[in-house]
Amino acid sequence: METEPREQPTGLRARALAVASLFVAPRSPLDYLRASALPSGGHRARVVATRAECEGTATLTLSPAPRTWSAGQHVDLSVLVDGAYQTRTFSISSAPPAASARARTFDVTIRAAAHGRLTPMLVRDAKVGDDVRVSPPAGCFVLPDAGAGMGPLLFVTAGSGITPVMSMLRGSLSSDVLHVHFERTRDRIIFGSELDALAKADPSYRRTCELTGAEVNVDQMLARIRALCPDLHTRQTFACGPAPLLDAMRALYTELEIEDHLHTESFGAPAAPPAIRALAHDAETTVARLSFTRSQVNVDADGRTSLLVLAERAGLKPAHGCRRGLCRSCVAPLRKGTVRDLRTGMDTVATGGGVQMCINAPVTDVEIDL
Ligand code: FES
Predict the structure, then answer these.
(1) Which of 72, 206, 304, 369 has CA atoms 20 to 30 A from the CA of 96?
(2) Is the pTM of this model over 0.70?
(3) ∠300-301-304 over CA atoms, to 5°?
(4) Are residues 257 and 289 in the same domain?
(5) Is the CB of 322 under 6 A from ligand 1?
(6) 330 CA from centroid of ligand 1 (Å)
(7) What is the DSSP letter of 24?
C-alpha cells in the first residue's frame, strides 16, 4: 500500500507555517512549498510553438528538452494556475534524439479531458513564451534496444494513447509493425494524416484505424485485434489506452500464455476492480461516509470514486498532480477507517500514515485530515 507520512516542520519554520496557515486553509503552506518546488532533476522550459491537432487536441513544443529520453516515456508538466502549480503527466510525442545528439526541443500532445480543468486550459490557452516545469522523463513503456533486432511488433492504441507510440514511430524503428488504433469518430484521430503518410512511405508499417462510436465495447475491440493480427503470439505488443482495454488484453495474453509479449501504458482514471463495483452496486450508491475533518465537510462515498474526486466535488481543493498514483502530491493523512486502492483492490487501514487520494476510495466510514 502506498502511504507517505508528511515531514513535520520544527522551530522557526513551524511558527512561520502556522501563521501562513491562516491564509491558505484548507491547504497547508507545506502543500504550496511542495507544489512550487522544481521536481527533483527537472527543469524549467518554455513553450516555443503550439500546433492544433484534431478537435480538442494540441501539441506544445517546449525548449529546452530533457538531456535524453526513450520513445514511450512521459514527463510531468507543472503550470501555475491561480497561484498554485498544477501537474499532469503527458507522454512525449516527438522522437528522442539520436545517440550522442542533444535535442533542443520536445513535444507533448494534449487532449482536453471532457471534465478536466487543466488540459482544456492548456489546449485552448497555451501560447509561445509560457513557462512550465518539467520533471525528468520516466516510465518503462519503451522499446527494447532498437539496434538489437526486435522482431515483429504490434502496436495497439486508443484515443490519446497514440502519443507515446507516435514517439516510437517517429524514431528509428526498423521492424515489421502492425498498428491497430481505436477512436470513437474519424475527426478525433490524432496524427491521422502523418500516420497515413508513414504507411504509404514504409511498407513495413501497416496500420488500421477502427472506429468504435460513442459506445465503446472492450470485447469487440479485443475481437478486432485478434482478427487483424492472427500472428499475435509472434509479436511483441505495445498497448496504450484506457485501463479496461488493457485489463482485457492482459487477460487474453495470460490465457494464451504469452503475457511476457505484452507491454502496456494506461491513461485516465484507474478502473475500479469488480469487487468494488459490486460493493457499490449492492449498496445502490452509498457505501460509506467520508469526512474531511479539518474542513468539516462530510460526503457520501460510493466505493468507486476516489477520495480526490469526492473532495473536489465537495468544493475542496486538495493538492494533486498526476491523478494516477505516480507523483504522490495528493497524499493526505488517513485518520480513521479503511480505503481501497482502485488499481489493485488492496485495503489500507488507518494507522496514522498518509494515503494517496487520487487512487483510493473509502470502504468503511473514513476520516481524512484535510
Ligand atoms: S495526484 Fe499524483 S499520486 Fe495522486
Answers:
(1) 206
(2) no
(3) 160
(4) no
(5) yes
(6) 5
(7) H
